[in-house]
Design a protein that fits this description.
The protein is α+β, with helices and mostly antiparallel strands. Helix content is 32%, strand content 27%. It is flat. The termini are far apart.
Length: 279
C-alpha cells in the first residue's frame, strides 16, 4: 500500500471516529424521548427511577395532611359559596379532647364551601364517614380509642382536590387508616373522575397500570415475607380489577400537580396498610 492510500485510509478512520463520537453525544443529550419510552417513574423493585422508595412516597403523602387549603391565589370571585365570608375550603370541625380511659381525639375536618348538589354530597359523605365516627367513639366508653383526623386540599388546573385521612385505634383492634377524596371541577361544577384526569393530562393508561401493578405486587411480596416471620398481614388480591386505573376512585392532585392514586385498605377493614402510587 502506497503512502497516499495510507493517508486516505487514515483520514477516513478519523472521520468515522468523529461521526461516532458525535452520534453518541447526540443520543446522550439531545435525542427526544417519546412519552411511550418514559414509564412515569415506574417502580422497579423497591426504588423508582428517581430514587424515591415506595415507603418514602407513602410518607410524603401522609405529610400532606396539615389541615390547610392551598388555593395558590385562585380567583374565587365567581364561585357560589355557602358562606361568602370564607374560602371555598375551610376548617369545618376542629375537635381536640381527651377523656381518661375512654378516648383521645384530635380531629380537623374540612367544609367544602361551594353551593351545589355535588359539593353537598361531598359534605354529607364527610358527615357520615368521619363526624358520625367521632360521635360513635365518644359514646362507646367500653373501648379506649385513639383517633386522629386531618385533611389537605389543593387547586390544580381548575380542579379542587380534597383528601381526608383518619387514623383510628380502637381497643385491641389493629390500627385503621381511612382515606376519602373529592375532586371537583370549579368551571363545570361537576365531579371529576380518574378518566377525566387521564384525558386532561394526556396520560397513558397502560403506563399507569404497569406502575400500579408494580407497586402493589412489591407490597404484596413484602407482606408475604412479613407473614413468614409470624406477623399478621393484609393480603392484597393482586389480580383484582380494582387495580385497573379506570376503576380508581380515591385520588388527588397534590401541591405540585402530582397525581396520587390511593388504595387505603382501612376503608374496608381494620388495617393501616395502603398503597400510594405517585404519577
Amino acid at each position: 500500500m502506497n503512502k497516499t492510500m495510507r493517508n486516505v485510509l487514515y483520514i477516513i478512520t478519523i472521520i468515522i471516529c468523529v461521526i461516532a463520537i458525535f452520534v453518541g453525544v447526540y443520543a446522550q443529550f439531545f435525542k427526544k424521548v417519546s412519552d411511550n419510552d418514559i414509564d412515569y417513574n415506574i417502580i422497579s423493585g423497591n426504588v423508582s427511577s428517581n430514587n424515591t422508595t415506595i415507603e418514602e412516597i407513602k410518607n410524603s403523602f401522609k405529610d400532606l395532611f396539615t389541615n390547610e387549603f392551598f388555593n395558590f391565589d385562585y380567583d374565587e370571585t365567581n364561585i357560589a359559596k355557602l358562606d361568602s365570608t370564607k374560602s371555598i375550603v375551610y376548617n369545618g370541625l376542629e375537635f381536640n379532647q381527651t377523656e381518661e380511659d375512654q378516648y383521645n381525639i384530635k380531629a380537623t375536618l374540612p367544609m367544602i364551601n361551594i353551593a351545589g348538589d355535588v359539593t353537598t354530597n361531598y359534605n354529607n359523605i364527610t358527615q357520615q364517614l368521619f363526624v358520625n365516627k367521632l360521635s360513635n367513639i365518644m359514646q362507646n366508653t367500653d373501648v379506649y380509642t385513639i383517633c386522629d383526623m386531618s385533611y389537605t386540599a389543593y387547586i390544580n388546573n381548575d380542579i379542587l382536590s380534597v383528601a381526608i385521612m383518619a387514623s383510628i385505634k380502637e381497643g385491641d383492634n389493629a390500627q385503621r387508616i381511612m382515606i376519602q377524596t373529592y375532586n371537583y371541577n370549579l368551571i363545570t361544577n361537576k365531579n371529576v373522575s380518574i378518566s377525566d384526569i387521564i384525558e386532561l393530562r394526556d396520560l397513558d393508561q397502560n403506563t399507569i397500570n404497569r406502575k400500579i401493578k408494580s407497586v402493589v405486587n412489591k407490597a404484596a411480596e413484602d407482606a408475604k415475607s412479613m407473614q413468614n416471620t409470624g406477623y399478621n398481614i393484609y393480603e392484597r388480591d393482586v389480580d383484582s380489577d380494582k387495580y385497573d386505573v379506570t376503576q380508581v376512585e380515591n385520588f388527588i392532585q397534590g401541591p405540585n400537580g402530582e397525581l396520587y392514586i390511593i388504595y387505603a385498605y382501612g376503608n374496608e377493614t381494620y388495617t393501616s396498610e395502603m398503597d400510594i402510587i405517585e404519577i
